[in-house]
């Protein structure tokens, strides 16, 4: 029995697919299949059920899985101890980001880390906040830049590095363009342009609307906040988005502060709480916390002039 066989077995189990496991391990799929079949022959029982669309554990596979994970963890721990005793920082770190990271200097952070630790391989991927949170908890990511609400996700430690208002933005000809502030209820029945479900800001919006007693009518879901702003500028609806996404389009958009309730979106550094973390991952987390210090809350800018009266009737009028 080889550690490589156990590693392949665990990867196929977690991915529920030989193809995805091979991509994750950066090896050819036939090699993964061959190694796991060799492991099954040695143990005398099939570990995986390959008959369906997804790969599932057999009864024997379920019994073997915790021991395979324990063996891999023990080997990783032994390597960490040796690295720490010798003062080496090497290995591999995985980082997840959300779209908002375009407004932060992530390339500068990673370039600085690579300069200090050239023996560490860095993997960077973009994903939804919900998926990254799961990956951080499972140890598949070492560090994540996640969007989140006021309460940190369970099982993670976080450091908020960006805190900004969630605002509404409309084209200048929209009835809401006469307002500088609106209650969330003013968006009831309006066609909204939002980030997709599973993102931190969308979760904040959906929860706030549910608390206000209505379901948002989302016409466009786009993962890039800047594209949301462009759609709103062309009169396709009301964009509800982080304030920073409206800044490049100030001449084309009217930005409105949402009150009752005020909403803010946060970007936070996130890493698994309490789990074993290698020296390379710890070095990256320490550098990120130093280079991207905790942010103070940021409110939406208030207009110097009093808000205009709401239009009479229509779905754009503010109620309460």
From TrEMBL:
Keywords carried by this UniProt record: DNA-binding, Transcription, Transcription regulation
PROSITE patterns: HTH_LYSR
Keyword Transmembrane helix: no
A Gene Ontology term for the protein's cellular component: protein-DNA complex
InterPro entries, A to Z: LysR_HTH_N (IPR000847), LysR_subst-bd (IPR005119), WH-like_DNA-bd_sf (IPR036388), WH_DNA-bd_sf (IPR036390)
Stretch forming the signal peptide: none
All copies of domain HTH lysR-type, residue ranges: 1-58
Low complexity bias spans: 295-306
Annotated region described as Disordered, given as residue ranges: 295-320
Pfam families recorded: HTH_1, LysR_substrate
Record's keyword annotation contains Transcription: yes
Transmembrane segments: none
GO MF terms held by the record: DNA binding; DNA-binding transcription factor activity
Similarity field: Belongs to the LysR transcriptional regulatory family.
Protein name as annotated: LysR family transcriptional regulator
Species for this entry: Actinomadura rudentiformis
């Amino acid at each position: 029995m080889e550690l490589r066989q156990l590693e392949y077995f665990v990867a196929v189990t977690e991915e529920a697919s030989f193809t995805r496991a091979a991509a994750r391990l950066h090896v050819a799929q036939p090699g993964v299949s061959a190694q796991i079949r060799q492991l099954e022959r040695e143990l005398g029982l099939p570990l995986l059920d390959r008959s369906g669309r997804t790969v599932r554990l057999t009864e024997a596979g379920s019994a073997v899985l915790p021991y395979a994970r324990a063996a891999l963890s023990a080997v990783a721990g032994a390597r960490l101890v040796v690295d720490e005793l010798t003062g080496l920082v090497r290995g591999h770190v995985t980082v997840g980001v959300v779209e908002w990271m375009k407004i932060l200097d992530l390339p500068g952070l990673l370039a600085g880390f690579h300069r200090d630790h050239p023996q560490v391989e860095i993997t960077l991927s973009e994903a939804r906040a919900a998926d990254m949170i799961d990956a951080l908890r499972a140890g598949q990511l070492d560090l994540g830049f996640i969007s989140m609400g006021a309460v940190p996700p369970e099982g993670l430690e976080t450091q908020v590095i960006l805190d900004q208002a969630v605002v509404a933005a409309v084209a200048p000809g929209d009835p809401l363009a006469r307002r500088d502030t609106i209650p969330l209820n003013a968006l009831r029945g309006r066609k909204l342009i939002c980030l997709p479900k599973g993102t931190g800001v969308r979760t904040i919006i959906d929860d706030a609307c549910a608390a206000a007693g209505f379901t948002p009518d989302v016409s466009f879901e786009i993962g890039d906040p800047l594209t949301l702003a462009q759609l709103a500028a062309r009169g396709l609806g009301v964009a509800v988005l982080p304030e920073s996404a409206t800044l490049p389009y100030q001449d084309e958009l009217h930005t409105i502060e949402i009150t009752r309730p005020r909403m803010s979106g946060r970007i936070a550094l996130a890493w698994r709480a309490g789990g074993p973390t290698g020296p390379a991952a710890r070095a990256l987390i320490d550098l990120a916390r130093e280079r991207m210090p905790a942010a103070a809350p940021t409110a939406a800018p208030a207009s110097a002039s009093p808000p205009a009266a709401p239009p009479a009737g229509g779905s754009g009028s503010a109620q309460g």
